[in-house]
Every structure is written in C-alpha cells, then in structure tokens.
C-alpha cells in the first residue's frame, strides 16, 4: 500500500494529463517511453515527463517526508527544458528507431518508409532509453518480415522447384543425367564478435542480441532454405560443439569445421547433406604464418572435395571452398595474400589427373565490395597491382586511410606461392624402374622440386574461370544489393563464386583462354534474391526479429555439367 501523499500525487498527475497519454503507477510503460537524463537526488528512479504536461505544475506542498525537497525551489519545468523525454503519439511505430545517421541518410534519399523524424532535434539532448527488452516483455512488438523471392534462370529449374514444394518426386521431372544441388553462404555472426562490437548494433533491441534468441532463428532459416551445402562463417567454437553441429547433423548434414588460429573463438564450417554428397577430402587453410610478419592475422579457410552420390560419373567431384578474409580496410596486402593462399589450396585440391580442374564453388565473407581490385581479381583472373594503395584493395572505404603502395611482390618468396596463385613447392613421387641405376641413394620416397623463381612482377593471376552468382545491382533501378546491414554500413561483402559451364548464359564474364581448363562446369539455375538497404531498414536493419545475423544468407542452385 502506498503512502497517502504518494497516492494523491498520482491522482494529481492524472488530472493534468491528456486522456490518450495517461500514465499511472500501475499501467505499463509505453514502448517508446524515454526517461529524463537528470532527476533530483532524492528520487530513486527517473521521472516520466509528458510533452503535454503543464509547465506551471508544481509538486503539492504536502510532499512531506523529503524535507530537503519540500524546502527547495525545485520545479518540474526547470527539467523539462533540459530533457528530450516525451510521450509519443499513439500512432508512432513500435518497431524501434533507426540510428540517427541512418535516418538522415535515408531521408536524403526520399525514403518515406523510415520512422518519423523527431521534432526539434536541435534543442534536445541525447539521453538513455528505457530497456526495450523490458518494454517488449510487457507489450511485445510487431514482427516485421521481408519476403525474398527466388529468381530463375532455367524454366526446368522453376518446374522442379514447384514440384519440390508440392512434394513431387524430382526424378520423374529431371533427366537421369543431371545433378542439381543448392549451396548457401551465410555469416551467422559470432556471439563473441557481436559483444565485442556492440556499437554496430545500437539500433537493435537488447533481447534480440542474445544467443538464446538468435540461434533458433538461424536454425529455422537453415531449415526453411534447405540447402544441400552450407558454407558458414563466424561459427563460434563452443556453440558449434554444444549445439550447432548436433542440430545440423539431425537435419542430415555432415559437418567439417576449422577454427581460427590464436585466441579467436570462431571459424568456418562447411556442411553437406550426406544424401547428396560423400566426402573425398577436407583441407583446412591457416592464413597465419609465424615466420612471415605480413601474415600475422588469424583468419582461416576450408576446402572440401565432394563426390555426388548419383547421376554422375564415378570420378565426378566438386570442390567447395569457404573463407572469411581479414576485415581491416587498410590492409589490402594481407587480404590479397590470404586470397592467394586459398586459391593455391583450391588449385591443389581441385586438380584432376588430366591437368584440368573439377568444378569449383568459392563462398565466404571477403570483406571487399563489388568492383574493388580484389573482387575484379577473383572474377577476371588477373590483377596488376603496381602503384595500388593498400587501402584501395577492398574498396571498403570511400576515402581510404591506407595510402602505402603495395610492395612488389606482395608476399615473400618463402611463402611458397607463385604470382599465379599455385604452390611453388610440389612433392613428386620418386619413380624407380627395374634395372635403373640411380647416381645416389635417397632415404625418402619423395623429393621437393622447387619451380624456378619468377621475374619480379606486379601481375597476379589465377587459372579459374569464376563468375558471381549475384549481379550486385538491381537491373531495373541500379540500386545496390546488400548482404550486410548494421548501424555503420550496408554493403555487399558476401559472395558465391563458381566455375561456369561454357553454355551458361546466366553468367557475366569469363576468363579468356580458360575454356579447356575445367572438367565440365556448373550451370546457374536460380538464386535467392537479395534486398536493398531501404528494404532492410523497414524491419530495423540487421539483426531483427526474424533475421538474427547482421548478414543475409546467400543461396544458389546449380546443375553439374560434365565434359
């Protein structure tokens, strides 16, 4: 039971409030309620202040037990002038507001779908907000969702997709000679990295950032998209061991995992459905090299060689690679070296007996934007980096701070990788024939043959013919596609690259002279459409109620074309 003077205080407050904005001690707090940043020392909690509250109102003189307050000249209007706390109109959205920087940016682009701008921002001070998590426990909130549609590049693929949704047998539709499969690339946002970079998620409700909320959402996304191969980044090791691995295995996946080196608690995982593939080999790639100062970062990659279980030749294979390159926008030299190490491992794993490569898919978070030198190198197979500043390699910064020019060569000779992104040091089986005499006996069955060092060149090359699943811009409007969106930026950094079959009209560019370097290839049948930044801010960016990572999952369907 409250003291009488407190009860009367509550009644007096109610009489001065508009009917639509009544606040009592027993009523739930509005979902957009803000608390004053300053309050008198006698108060054990911040005081709610209405925008319509009379500026001349005073606490009644009988507000007795606090003599210090009773004898003071403190007035409520002295505080209302210095605080931005107010009760919103009932029509205000409860979705949660965007960061002010995002709001200003979108308003400049005539984005009318964003939240209403607050009035008199120049006269208001920034204050802390009531815990949104507590508000949602009382009221709940509207769960906004955005539907992503499937884009088809093949009519047969569309027919098969419809049949699959209806539960029909694909074998009656697809030819016995084809092998179709889907691949997803998804940065699921490590919980440790989320907590270490909480400034990127100021726009999010607190409870949406807990792993106990996020993991069920992520798992549900994986179930709904139902990809045959998953390439996951930022997979936290303790979560992987405790629940991610077992959850995916229960869905029919076999999981391979590579944790980052050093003290980093996350890594990359490739998971594939055992009903579609069998594992030939698993090859982790560590980008950290203790003996090379340039390579002092703990990023990793993972390269799998998979064999389709049916509809293919006995020796058919597909190489799947997954990586998460260094983020630092000012260290393009490290990014390019990490990429070269990954490509060298892929060249080693995907190499066939006849000297060609099996079909290749490379997924991951490359921390580089479309059109950047690193992106062009992957797609075009060549890069002349002479005079290129290290801050411009990834294109992450509009005004790069890294101005140092890339050295020639970028990485030292002892890394053992050539400018063609292949291993320079190869192991060759020692061959002996009957009656052949060797000049000297050798204790090992292998010997290292070091390829002659190349002339110093500023030109990087690789021998893969790679295309991007996504075009990165919407053709009708030219608006960029977005794969990640948080408080600081909304850009494309995630990709699915693949070795395209020669007749694949859906791809964009081919590497000249590489037509005969592949044993078959992949035909792109369809993809899950991406979204714009404006689309994502209609559901308060990422993460949100339904999407529990700051990245979107990428998904594509391929058909294996054998030569």
From TrEMBL:
Q: Where is the composition biased (Polar residues)?
A: 109-125
Q: What Pfam families does the database record attribute to this sequence? A: ANGEL2_N (PF19339), Exo_endo_phos (PF03372)
Give the source species: Cyanistes caeruleus (Eurasian blue tit)
- Matches recorded under PANTHER family: CARBON CATABOLITE REPRESSOR PROTEIN 4, PROTEIN ANGEL HOMOLOG 2
Provide the residue span(s) of the region labelled Disordered.
Answer: 93-125
Where does the Endonuclease/exonuclease/phosphatase domain start and stop, copy by copy? 184-500
Instruction: Show where the Protein angel homolog 2 N-terminal domain sits.
Output: 1-172
Name by which UniProt lists this protein: Angel homolog 2
One example of a Gene Ontology biological process annotation: 3'-UTR-mediated mRNA stabilization
Q: Per its UniProt entry, which superkingdom is the organism in?
A: Eukaryota
Residues that span the membrane, as ranges: none
Which InterPro entries does the annotation name? ANGEL2_N (IPR045816), CCR4/nocturin_mRNA_transcr (IPR050410), Endo/exonu/phosph_ase_sf (IPR036691), Endo/exonuclease/phosphatase (IPR005135)
Give the GO molecular function terms: 3'-5'-RNA exonuclease activity; mRNA 3'-UTR binding
């Amino acid at each position: 039971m409250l003291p009488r003077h407190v009860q009367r205080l509550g009644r007096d407050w109610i009489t001065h409030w508009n009917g639509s904005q009544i606040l009592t001690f027993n009523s739930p707090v509005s979902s957009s309620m803000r608390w004053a940043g300053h309050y008198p020392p006698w108060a054990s909690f911040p005081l709610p202040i209405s925008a319509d509250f009379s500026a001349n109102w005073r606490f009644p003189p009988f507000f007795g037990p606090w003599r210090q307050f009773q004898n003071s000249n403190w007035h409520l209007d002295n505080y209302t002038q210095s605080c931005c706390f107010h009760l919103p109109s009932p029509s205000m959205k409860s979705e949660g507001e965007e960061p002010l920087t995002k709001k200003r940016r979108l308003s400049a682009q005539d984005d009318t779908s964003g939240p209403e701008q607050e009035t008199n921002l120049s006269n208001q001070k920034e204050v802390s907000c009531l815990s949104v998590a507590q508000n949602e426990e009382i009221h709940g909130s509207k769960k906004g969702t955005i539907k992503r549609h499937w884009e088809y590049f093949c009519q047969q693929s569309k027919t098969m997709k419809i049949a699959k949704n209806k539960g029909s047998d694909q074998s009656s539709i697809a030819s016995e000679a084809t092998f179709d499969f889907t691949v997803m690339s998804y940065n699921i946002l490590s919980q440790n990295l989320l907590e270490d970079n909480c400034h990127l998620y100021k726009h999010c409700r607190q409870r949406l950032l807990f792993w106990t909320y996020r993991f069920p959402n992520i798992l549900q996304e994986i179930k709904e998209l139902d990809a045959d191969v998953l390439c996951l980044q930022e997979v936290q090791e303790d979560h992987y061991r405790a629940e991610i691995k077992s959850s995916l295995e229960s869905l029919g996946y076999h999981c391979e995992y590579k944790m980052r080196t050093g003290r980093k608690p996350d890594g990359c995982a490739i998971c594939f459905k055992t009903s579609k593939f069998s594992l030939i080999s698993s090859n982790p790639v560590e980008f950290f090299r203790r003996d090379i100062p340039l390579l002092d970062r703990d990023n990793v990659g993972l390269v799998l060689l998979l064999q389709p279980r049916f509809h293919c030749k006995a020796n058919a294979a597909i190489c799947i690679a997954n990586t998460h390159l260094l983020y630092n926008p000012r260290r393009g030299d490290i990014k390019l070296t990490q990429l070269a190490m990954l490509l060298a491992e892929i060249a080693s794993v995907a190499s066939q007996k006849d000297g060609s490569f099996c079909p290749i898919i490379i997924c991951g978070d490359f921390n580089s934007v479309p059109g950047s030198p690193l992106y062009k190198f992957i797609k075009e197979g060549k890069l002349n980096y002479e005079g290129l500043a290290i801050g411009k390699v990834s294109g992450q910064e509009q005004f790069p701070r890294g101005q140092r020019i890339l050295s020639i060569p970028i990485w030292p000779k002892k890394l053992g990788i050539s400018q063609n992104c292949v291993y320079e040091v190869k192991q060759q089986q020692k061959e002996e024939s009957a009656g052949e005499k060797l000049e000297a006996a050798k204790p090992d069955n292998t010997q290292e043959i070091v390829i002659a060092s190349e002339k110093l060149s500023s030109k990087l090359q690789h021998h893969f013919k790679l295309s991007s699943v996504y075009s990165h811009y919407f053709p009708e409007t030219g608006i960029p596609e977005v794969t990640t969106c948080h408080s600081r930026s909304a850009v494309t950094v995630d990709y699915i690259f693949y070795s395209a079959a020669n007749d694949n009209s859906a791809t964009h560019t081919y590497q000249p002279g590489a037509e005969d370097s592949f044993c078959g290839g992949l035909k792109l049948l369809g993809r899950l459409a991406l979204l714009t930044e404006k689309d994502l801010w209609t559901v308060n960016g990422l993460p949100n109620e339904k999407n529990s990572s700051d990245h979107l999952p990428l998904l594509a369907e391929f058909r294996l074309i054998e030569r």
